[in-house]
Amino acid sequence: MKKATKKAVKRREWTKNDIKELKAHSKARTPIGRVAKATKRTIGALRVKASQLGIGLGHQR
User: Fold this and answer.
1) Cα 14 from Cα 50, distance rounded (Å)
2) Where are the domains of the chain?
3) Side-chain half-sphere of 18: how many Cα atoms within 13 Å?
4) Which residue pairs, CB below 8 angstroms and at least 24 apart, start in 10-15?
5) How many Cβ atoms sit within 10 Å of the Cβ of residue 26?
6) 19, 50 in Cβ contact below 8 A?
7) Largest CA-CA distance found in the chain, in angstroms, rounded
8) DSSP state string for 1-20
9) DSSP-assigned letter for residue 58
10) What is the pTM of this model?
11) What is the pLDDT of residues 4-61, one digit of tens each?
12) Contact 18, 39 (CB under 8 A)
């Protein structure tokens, strides 16, 4: 039986441009799935960064 291997975590620094793009998506209320694809980052990473910046992401329920 083969043991499941975990995918290696690749951390990428947030550049000024990345943050600017995230803020633009926040203002435009872009769905988080689409933002994740556009920025090539996980939904979790986007949520954490948005929380740190104090901005909303996606639609508010």
Assistant:
1) 12
2) 16-53
3) 13
4) 12/41, 14/49
5) 18
6) no
7) 49
8) -PPPPPPPP---PPPHHHHH
9) S
10) 0.78
11) 788 887 889 999 999 999 999 999 999 999 999 999 999 999 999 999 999 998 766 5
12) yes
